[in-house]
Amino acid sequence: MFWDIIRKYVDKNNKNTNRELLLHGNMVQAILTLAIPVVINSFLQTMYNLTDTYWLGKLGTEELAAINLVTPMQNIVINFGSGLTVAGSVLISQYLGAKKDEDARNMANQIFACALMFSVMCAGFCALFTPSIVTWLGADGETWQHSKTYMQLVILDMPFLFTVNMYTAINQAQGDTLRPMLLNLMGILLNMILDPLFMVLLHMGVAGAALATVSAKAVPAVIAFILLQNRNKDVYLRLSRLKFEKEKLKSILVVGLPTAIGGSTMQFGFLLMSKNVFKYGTQAMAAYGIGNKINSMITLPTNGIGSAVATIVGQNVGAKQYERAERGYLISRRISVIFLFAGGLILSRMPVSTAIVRIFSDDAEVIGMAADFLSIMAFWCFANGVHNSSMGLFQGSGHTEVTMIIDAARLWVFRFATLYVCETWLHMGVRSVWYSVVVSNGLSALILYIIYKTGYWKKKRI
């Protein structure tokens, strides 16, 4: 009965998220219709880690530092694989915009198979080499043990995660962002129940946090796999007719490989940043993790808008409506910058940032450092509005080589150069990390804006 009500509600609302809206409807309505569920969905995804962070903070600083230390390594693998899901969303949306529905369905089949094989292989590889990875990161004693335990278990969620991600990508390409949101809502509710059950009541600690996350992603993954075979949708899986096509696999590599390389390279940079922060101690590591997680929530709306831009641009480029695609980008960028500028002014106030950080830690030193980090990032976060909407423009038009270069440069050039100057020349200590984040984000946004002005995104890519 409950799911019948949800299905009717979704079907009713999905009438506004079809090709007509994206290609010919009101642009602001199209942006918000796509972006709002994506924002909520991203918030739910973030809540997986925030729930772990909250309960681990109750266990102790060592446990909290451990999860923050290894999370970037997990994200390296996830972001490399996300190149496949980004390619799926872009290619499917362009086929739909060009009214090539059969090609869109074939593309969905091939990307799903590639993503699933990748996730299974990487999960096994990472679980096997976790001890060496944790040692390389510099962990020892209890932090080493907690990090190893958490990573070896949580990495097993990859096949489930990629199944849900492919469901999200395929539906988003069709203009449906509501169903993925509802599916992830189920997952986070399960995680919120299982975290205290496994970690506190069953005294499983860090292992409980990992198992709760894996379990909470397994259930939505099974449902997603079933829903992906629904033939009432424009795009659905037909695994019995799966046959790899050379041209489509080439398109997946052209669009997906740059995104995969850029995303994983960026996450590897985050990993080295974590190693750099860890030299200041477990309290600094805990503060860095808390600040980053809260900042990710602040920028969620612009992440959602950037995702909406990719879908709108993808379908309109497929339909050769470049002027409408650009209009969608400009409106989205304006909304993002205004929102983050206003929100950043509020959250950058030290009393506000301190009150938020206190939710996740009782350690006075951790609170002080995390609040300082958060206030600095919040004040300059409006640059993320330009960055995220511009990344959506280049992804939607198929120019993922631009996003790859910017992702790599943001960490490996701008961030580490700023870190070196602040640490070596200005002797700013742990605050060097805080300022390296905002400077690198700002420079990346500026370069993306300059590339947009050249009109490069309009050149045919696929």
Structural account:
With about 450 residues, the protein is an all-alpha fold. It is built from 18 helices and no strands. It has helices spanning about 1-15, 20-25, 25-60, 60-95, 100-135, 140-155, 160-175, 180-200, 205-225, 245-280, 280-300, 300-320, 320-345, 350-355, 365-380, 380-395, 400-425, 430-455. The N and C termini lie far apart (about 45 Å).
Strand percent estimate: under 5%
Number of helices: 18
- Order of SSEs, N→C? HHHHHHHHHHHHHHHHHH
Task: Report low-confidence residues grouped into runs of 5 or more.
Answer: 1-17
Radius of gyration: 21 Å
Task: Compute the average pLDDT.
Answer: 83
Overall structural class, as computed from helix and strand content, comes to mainly alpha
Q: Which geometry do the CA atoms define?
A: globular
Number of strands: 0
Question: How many domain regions?
Answer: 1
Question: How far apart lie the N and C ends?
Answer: 45 Å
Helix content: over 70%
Oligomer: single chain
Q: Summarize the main sheet.
A: none
Please name the defining characteristics of this protein.
single chain; 462 residues; mainly alpha; 83% helix
Secondary structure elements and pairings:
Elements: H1 2-13, H2 19-24, H3 27-59, H4 61-97, H5 101-136, H6 141-154, H7 158-173, H8 178-201, H9 205-227, H10 246-278, H11 282-298, H12 300-318, H13 322-347, H14 350-357, H15 364-379, H16 382-396, H17 400-425, H18 431-453
Helix pairs in contact: 3-4, 3-8, 3-9, 3-11, 3-12, 4-5, 4-6, 4-7, 4-10, 4-11, 4-12, 5-6, 5-7, 6-9, 7-8, 7-9, 8-9, 10-17, 11-15, 12-13, 12-16, 13-15, 13-16, 14-15, 15-18, 16-18, 17-18
